[in-house]
Each structure stands twice: as C-alpha cells, then as structure tokens.
Amino acid sequence: MPDWHPASHPAMPEVVAHGRTPDVFACGYCHLPNGQGRPENSSLAGLPVGYIIQQITDFKTGLRKTSEPRHRPIAAMMTVASKVSESDVQAAARYFSSLKPRRWIRVLETKTVPKTRGSGWMLVPLSTGATELINHRIIETRENLERTELRDDTSGFIAYVPVGSIKKGEALVTSGGGGKTVQCTICHGPALKGLADVPPILGRSPSYIVRQLYDIKRGERAGVRSQLMRPVLARLSVDDMVSIAAYTASLNP
User: Fold this and answer.
1) 166 and 111, same structural domain?
2) pTM recorded for the entire structure
C-alpha cells in the first residue's frame, strides 16, 4: 500500500498497512493512512472506536447495505467484514480513532460544474473543459487526479454544491428547519464533534453523507443507531439531504 508520508501518522497496524491475504484488503489503501478516505468510502479519522467496530459488525451481519447494488465499495466492505478477525478490527478501530481529522474537502457553491465521467469510483472532469448546470446535485471530485490516484494522502477534494444549499443546510442542522426534522446537535453533540459512540459529522465527504442519509431512510442501514435516525429523516427530501451534507462538509473538523 502506498504511504507517501510515513512520518505524519502513528505506526499502522498490519491489517491497516498490508491487510491479511487472501481476503482482507489493507484498510489504509481505501481509507488512506491518514484515515481521511475518499468520496466512494468513508473518512475514519477521529471516529469513536466503538462506532467503527459496530459498523464492521453491521457489514458482517448484513445490517449495513446500500441502496445502489452497483456501488462495489460496499460489497468489498461486506466481504472484508466477513473475513477479518476481531483482533484486527480492534487494532484498526483504535488506529483510525487516534487520527486527528483535518480539512480535506473544499466546498464551493455554484450554478455550473465541470462535466464529469466516472473513473475509479470517483467523478473526473472531462478533458474538454465542458460545463453543465449543477441542478440538485453534489459533484465531488479531486483537487489533483494524478496524486489522488497514486494515493497521496495530502491531496484532497472539491465538492461543488447548489447555490444556497449551505445556508439551507445550516437551518436544518441547527434548528430542524421549522419542524421538518430535529437538530443534529442533539445526538452528534453541540459542535457536531460527536457524543460518546455517535460520530462527528464535520468536514466529511458530502457525497458519502448523502448516501448514508438516503440508505438509512430506506432501511438499507438497519443497525441500532440507524433505526434511531429513521424517524429523523422521514420528512427529508433528497434536496434536504444535499443541503445538510453541503453544510456539514463546509465546516472545519
């Protein structure tokens, strides 16, 4: 697994650095040695140990799936969860939890975005430089394609979000949007930095956040805490989820 900056993080456990042949992929290859992750997976840096362990358990037992069967990173996680040992899960959880998350995503409100194509589970702008209306989407892409593809964990991402979505998301997150939902701070803490085993949600991939909200609402994520989230999401539209994700991603972790 590439490790561009070995002096910038603690020593990685074997399962994070190299995995376990033949079925357990190195955790750090997808989630990166700094735990910041990429849009197609999850940022693990600073998540509570108990939360990480519970998610692996949910993948293993089938309580955590995806609404999009073609999203292969989830299938890969389900396979890894079924093969990894409890001691390796504990070691990986402690490692990623010990890492300090940093600003990794630059959030820009815009009416137009680069036209993109899918490549390596990411959106990549077309070489023609063509643009299109963003409409009701989040378009998340890399700052530097070559460095990102080579797993340089100092090369982050740009998230283009609809104009006005950050302010709308702030209202939903901090006040419940006039009764549409409840304040995220009740469970995720006053500064959204997490509370006990409830995860922090600051500065994380907005693409990832929207997928999780959508999957929880549809029941594809059915763990204990996800069940508690379903009533919170019942009245939210996909546009609302986009706004929430735009706002939380814009915050400094």
Assistant:
1) yes
2) 0.95
